[in-house]
Amino acid sequence: MNYKIHSWVFIIGLIALVAGCDQKPKLSSSSTGLMPPRIYDAQQLALGKQLFGEHCAGCHGDNAQGAAHWQQPNSDGTYPPPPLDGSGHAWHHSTGTLFEVISNGSQPGRGNMPAWKDRLNEEQIIAVIVWFQSLWPDPVYAAWYESYQ
């Protein structure tokens, strides 16, 4: 590593330290080494949790843990509901893709998720996404953020 890179790393680290005061930054796998921001408010989280409980928990579980054998196809070839808590593959998808699947349901032959666009509006769907993303462990969220933001 050359002198200029060391200088920039030092400056970025110093800024993060000063900005965080006595708070220790959360490390992640992101290229900056700092945990990316989770941008949502308590009201949006509460709405997302409520809607998830009413509309999604019956299939995805109360804590978004998904079906026990979600990676194994059912007898009809479709897959059971996956976990949305960061332990499955949801974090491999952009917010747009997650929105699309919730709005329009799963692709034919892939799952049994219904389309929610006629029952939930855009704000509600985003709130559900924000809520289950809030369950993602920091390294998972950081990897998603780095890929899609």
Account of the protein in words:
With 149 residues, this protein is an all-alpha fold. The chain folds into 2 domains: 1-35; 36-148, Orthogonal Bundle (Cytochrome Bc1 Complex, Chain D, domain 2), CATH 1.10.760.10. The chain is built from 5 helices and no strands. The chain has helices at 3-20, 42-60, 95-104, 122-134, 138-148. Helix 3 packs across helix 4. Mean pLDDT is 83; it is low at 1-30.
Estimated radius of gyration? 19 Å
CATH-defined architecture of the largest domain = Orthogonal Bundle
| Portion in helices | 40-55%
- The coarse silhouette is globular
Q: What would you give as the CATH superfamily of the largest domain?
A: Cytochrome c-like domain
- Poorly predicted ranges: 1-30
Number of strand segments: 0
- Kindly estimate the percentage of residues that lie in beta strands according to DSSP: under 5%
Question: How many structural domains are formed by the residues?
Answer: 2
- Taking the alpha carbons of the first and last residues, their distance comes to 27 Å
Please identify the top-level CATH class of the largest domain: Mainly Alpha
Q: How much is the average pLDDT?
A: 83
Largest sheet: none
